[in-house]
Design goal:
alpha/beta, single chain, nine-stranded mixed β-sheet, Rossmann fold, 12 helices, OB fold (Dihydrolipoamide Acetyltransferase, E2P), 32% helix
Length: 432
């Protein structure tokens, strides 16, 4: 722990303007800026805007721990340093705000808990589950476990853990279980693991899942229309950057099979748990690097396209895609005949490229992934960086093959300049 200067104790930071009375105005400015940025790309396309709650909308909060004038405080980073002391954090959930002063008092009064403490992370849920992580910059005190157990009992904490370099002490568990209620009546449960990504705004996540499910229904309706009203076989979904199965679990009911690709093994394990706990039997998780997977699949699709152009029937998929992809097997699929989930998905696809869902990092999609995406009839693209999305659409060439037919803005990051957005793209030949 260290004091930093200059010190502010008013809770204000340069990267967030928490002014609930002006929230609607701030959101309007952000959405106007996005519409202006996209210009003709969204001409004639309805852009649905999903606002955040004005306060207490985050189930996750992370603070530095510093001493200001000798007093231990939660601190927010500003300009790359923990400069701003806070006693509360009104964008975080009520449960986190109620716990903050009690936890701070307990930690500050304990030498075993406060020595070397550099950060405190809260991970909560809409249903009251809570995990607190205490992060240390030096070896944890020899009495840490006993002190932590006592504090956990005193504060009635569901779960608590401590981390230092090379050390991780877990009291009870390192995850929380969240429940999302969707408009279609389903209640889905998700395991969210400490240290791995999960959506910080549960209410906004529910809105995103509802939008994705509605998009899937529209895709099915469009396929039925093209089939002359006859009910076509359900589409296949390929999902890249699938995380803990957040989208996979909700969308699986709308597809005959889903292949979800994720590189983080902890997230893959959480996704398997989430699929099984929600009774999803038609989705498979593949632990693989997305870039390597895309290149492998591209080779097969390119070969099939060349064979089709030459008037030959495309050969069925090979036994495996190659590379270093390592399939993980959900409990619900343990008895499946094929050991390789990628092979099962490709065999079922038989050259079909129905729907792909991508939720990339802020940098957007790379060239190989963009080329893979262009093979699919329908593209669901979730973006935490509208500028990267626009670049992928324009310079990346997606608008040459696809048209935006649906769009949405999700204000996950209220009071900041950031927006999350989504588009549904349809192959242009299907729009005629």
């Amino acid at each position: 722990m260290a004091a930093t200067a200059p010190i502010r104790c008013d809770g204000k930071v340069t990267w967030m303007a928490f002014e609930p009375e002006s929230y609607e105005h701030q959101l309007q400015e952000k959405t106007s800026a996005m519409r202006s940025l996209f210009g003709a790309v969204l001409a004639g396309v309805e852009v649905q805007v999903f606002p955040s709650m004005p306060a207490h909308f985050r189930q996750r909060a992370r603070f530095a721990m510093c001493r200001f004038d000798g007093v231990l405080k939660f601190a927010l980073f500003d300009k790359d340093a923990p400069r701003v002391a806070v006693d509360r954090f009104p964008v975080a959930s009520r449960e986190i705000n109620e716990l903050m002063p009690r936890l701070l008092a307990a930690v500050a009064s304990s030498e075993a808990l406060s020595t070397g403490l550099e950060a405190c992370h809260f991970l909560g849920t809409q249903t009251g589950d809570m995990l607190v992580s205490l992060i240390y910059g030096e070896p944890m005190h020899s009495d840490w476990r006993a002190a932590a157990e006592a504090m956990r009992a005193e504060l009635s904490l569901p779960a608590l853990l401590g981390r230092a370099k090379g050390t991780r002490v877990v009291l009870d568990r390192d995850s929380v279980d969240e429940t999302y209620a969707l408009h279609d009546g389903r209640r889905l449960t998700y395991r969210q693991v400490e240290g791995s990504f999960s959506n910080p705004s549960a209410a906004m996540c529910e809105k995103t899942l509802d939008w994705l499910c509605e998009s899937a229904r529209l895709i099915a309706a469009e396929r039925a229309r093209r089939g002359g009203g006859a009910a076509p076989a359900q589409s296949l979904l390929l999902e890249l950057y699938s995380g803990n199965g957040n989208h996979t679990v909700a969308l699986a009911t709308h597809f005959s099979h889903v292949l979800a690709v994720e590189i983080d093994r902890r997230l893959c394990a959480a996704a398997e748990h989430n699929l099984a706990s929600n009774g999803v039997r038609n989705a498979t998780v593949l632990a693989a690097d997305s870039g390597r997977f895309c290149r492998s699949l591209l080779r097969k699709l390119d070969r099939g396209a060349k064979e089709a152009a030459a008037g030959r029937t495309a050969a069925p998929p090979d036994a495996a895609l190659g590379g270093r992809e390592e399939p993980t097997q959900p409990a619900a699929e343990a008895a499946a005949p094929s050991a390789n989930p990628t092979t099962r998905w490709l065999e079922e696809a038989r050259g079909r490229t129905d729907v792909i869902l991508v939720d990339p990092p802020r940098c957007g999609l790379d060239a190989d992934t963009l080329r893979l995406v262009s093979y699919f009839d329908h593209v669901l693209y979730i973006s935490c960086n509208p500028e990267a999305l626009l670049d992928n659409l324009q310079r990346g060439g997606l608008l040459q093959t696809h048209a935006v037919v649906r769009s949405a803005i999700f204000d996950h990051f209220a009071y900041t300049p950031h927006l999350e957005c989504a588009v549904l793209l349809r192959r242009r030949t299907l729009c005629e």
